[in-house]
Amino acid sequence: MITKNDCLLILSHSGETSELKNIINYTKKNSLPLISITGNKNSMLSLASEVAIILPDAKEACPNSLIPTTSTTMQLVIGDTIAMILMELNSFSEKDFKKFHPGGRIGASLLNIDEVMHTEKSLPIISLGKSMGEAIIIMNEKRFGCVGIIDEISGQLIGIITDGDLRRSMGVNLVDTSVEKIMTKNPITLIEKDSIKNAINLLNKEKITCVFVTKDKKPIGIVHLHDLIKITST
Fold it and tell me: What phi and psi, each to the nearest 5 degrees, are found at residue 87?
């Protein structure tokens, strides 16, 4: 499993356990670099290492001061520090994380919006010039709590009407009012390559629950905050 291009990082508080001897001998025979994290600077492991990271002398949290507790926590901190430095040196990005760790909650949060968005017939959209009565019917059918207003010629999204807009505009003649008189112009949108993580941050920041996904300003999808939270919490 160990190749000539590998570097060994060995963790041992005492640095004197018998099973280390064969590993240390192997690194010497094959000229492999050895880094150690240990609590004993004079140990067999430390003296054999090209780089020896020595832990501070601290009492174990175990009531008998025997079981590795404090020392293992310190090793974990050093390991995380090394990992973060390597990420920075190698310009390790969210895209790389998604590639190597696609599963789990973190991996799910890095999925692109176009992988989870509702599309085509699911889109709650209506053309400019239509009445609020028609818009309300679409809002009820699609159940996203909003409807997007598009320019019929260009197909571009130019406005949005939400449940909140309905409540604020409630009146006797609401159903006969044209959508452009109620809509909010230039709505907030996402692009298809935005991540779920960024989408959730945007929705929380703007205090909204739905957002359209556009391409060349044309709506190609829609996402709801509840759906995104459900995906990232499984």
Answer: -60, -40
Q: CA-CA distance, 200 to 203, in Å (whole number)?
A: 5
Contact 99, 110 (CB under 8 A): no
73 — phi, psi (to 5°)?
-65, -40
Containing 34, the helix (H) or strand (E) segment is strand 34-38
Phi-psi region of 163 (alpha: psi -120 to 50; beta: other; left: phi over 0): alpha
Distance CA 84, CA 79 (A): 9
How far apart are alpha carbons 226 and 9 in whole angstroms? 43
Q: Model-level pTM greater than 0.85?
A: no
In terms of C-beta distances under 8 Å and separation of at least 24 residues, what long-range contacts does 210-216 make, across chains too? Answer: 210/144, 210/145, 210/146, 210/162, 211/187, 212/148, 212/157, 212/160, 212/187, 213/113, 213/114, 213/117, 213/189, 214/156, 214/157, 214/189, 214/190, 215/191, 216/156
- Partner residues linked to 157 by β-bridges: 150
Contact assessment for residue 118 and residue 124, using Cβ atoms and an 8 Å cutoff:
no
Domains of the chain in start order, with CATH, are 8-92 (3.40.50.10490), 113-232 (3.10.580.10)
* Helix (H) or strand (E) run with residue 193 in it: none
Q: What are the pLDDT digits (tens) for 92-130?
A: 988 788 777 766 777 777 788 998 999 999 999 999 999
pLDDT tens by residue, 57-74: 999 998 988 898 999 999
Q: 123: helix, coil or strand? A: coil
